[in-house]
Design goal:
The protein contains two helices and no strands. It is mainly α.
């Protein structure tokens, strides 16, 4: 019975010590009992820890910002590669059309040379024919 009562008493006395704190940080004054179980830091160590936590938050923000920059730059690279691909396709199309136009112009010039000689020959024949006709008419 004594053991049961001592266990019950020990449990009852330890409940306030195991209670959770309402605030994550509570200021303790010298000589006052702690409101809950935890760690006691010196003001210097608390300041150092707070700076480390703040620094960690800033580092996380910086990492998030860098991730956004990387995503934006990756998108820019993809867009640029797409534009370069389209420009290369267009340049290739223009090159093919220029080659086709050059070949067509060359064939036209070759056939024009033959046509020009034919027209010259026809002009000579017409001139000779007209001279002959004038000569016959004047007789």
């Amino acid at each position: 019975m004594k053991q049961l009562l001592s266990l019950l008493l020990a449990t009852c006395l330890s409940i306030p010590a195991q209670a959770e704190c309402n605030k994550p940080v509570t200021l303790l004054n010298e000589g006052t009992p702690a409101p809950c179980r935890g760690f006691l830091f010196t003001p210097e160590k608390e300041s150092e820890t707070r700076l480390l936590v703040d620094d960690g938050k800033l580092m996380k923000q910086a990492i998030d910002f860098k991730d956004l920059q990387i995503k934006a730059l990756s998108k820019d690279i993809k867009d640029t590669e797409f534009i370069i691909g389209k420009e290369q396709e267009q340049a290739e199309l223009w090159r093919k059309r220029a080659e086709e136009s050059t070949l067509l112009l060359t064939k036209k010039q070759d056939s024009q040379g033959l046509r020009d000689w034919g027209m010259l020959l026809l002009g000579v024949v017409i001139t000779i024919g007209a001279g002959y006709a004038v000569g016959q008419a004047s007789k």
